[in-house]
């Protein structure tokens, strides 16, 4: 029987709400796939992480980005546009995970090449289930490119 090595999945969570960060982290703790999560609390920090600047200079590129739209300093729409315009970042899947149900936000996100758009449920149990569904799909079913390849 062949042993299959599964490399850890690096997740960048761009979220300014500490409660949502904690819930997302807890939902991913029991992941079937070994993963590590880096948190950026605003859009500026997210881009510093992706461009390996300042405190993020030694971090690997993420394999998956969970991006809130409503962020301080630089909103998620701006971050998404910068990611998808950058030749070294544009292949990283971006999952919009936000409270906004506005059709305008959905359309703009897909026009900026978001890979999917998910509205955060208000109920705790539903939120945890959504994060687990993201994990099941993006970390178990989908084949992600190696984050170190350009």
| Span between termini | 32 Å
Number of helices: 5
Largest sheet: 5 strands, parallel
Q: How would you classify the helix and strand content by structural class?
A: alpha/beta
For CATH, the homologous superfamily is named as Response regulator
DSSP helix fraction: 25-40%
Poorly predicted runs are: 1-5
Topology:
Layout: E1 9-14, H1 18-29, E2 35-40, H2 43-50, E3 64-67, H3 76-85, E4 94-98, H4 103-111, E5 116-119, H5 124-141
Parallel strand pairs: 1-2, 1-3, 3-4, 4-5
Helix pairs in contact: 1-5, 2-3
Explained architecture:
This protein is of the alpha/beta class and 150 residues long. It has one domain: Rossmann fold (3-Layer(aba) Sandwich), CATH 3.40.50.2300. Helices cover 38% and strands 17% of the residues. The protein has helices at 18-29, 43-50, 76-85, 103-111, 124-141; strands at residues 9-14, 35-40, 64-67, 94-98, 116-119. It has a 5-stranded parallel beta sheet, with helices on both faces. Helix 1 links the parallel strand 1 (9-14) and strand 2 (35-40). Helix 1 (18-29) packs across helix 5 (124-141) and helix 2 packs parallel to helix 3 (76-85). The protein is globular and about 35 Å long. The protein starts with 8 loop residues before the first strand and ends in a 9-residue tail after the last helix. The relative contact order is 0.18.
Would you summarize the structure shown here?
The chain has 150 residues and is an alpha/beta fold.
């Amino acid at each position: 029987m062949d042993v299959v090595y599964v490399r850890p999945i690096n997740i960048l969570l761009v979220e300014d709400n500490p409660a949502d960060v904690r819930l997302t982290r807890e939902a991913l703790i029991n992941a079937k796939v070994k993963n590590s999560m880096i948190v950026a609390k605003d859009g500026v920090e997210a881009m510093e992480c992706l461009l390996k600047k300042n405190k993020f200079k030694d971090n690997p590129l993420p394999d998956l980005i969970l991006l809130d739209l409503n962020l301080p300093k630089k909103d998620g729409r701006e971050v998404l546009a910068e990611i998808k315009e950058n030749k070294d970042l544009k292949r990283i899947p971006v999952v919009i995970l936000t409270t906004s149900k506005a059709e305008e936000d959905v359309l703009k996100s897909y026009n900026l090449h978001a890979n999917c758009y998910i509205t955060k449920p208000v109920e705790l149990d539903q939120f945890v289930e959504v994060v687990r569904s993201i994990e099941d799909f993006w970390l178990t079913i989908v084949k992600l490119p190696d984050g170190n390849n350009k």
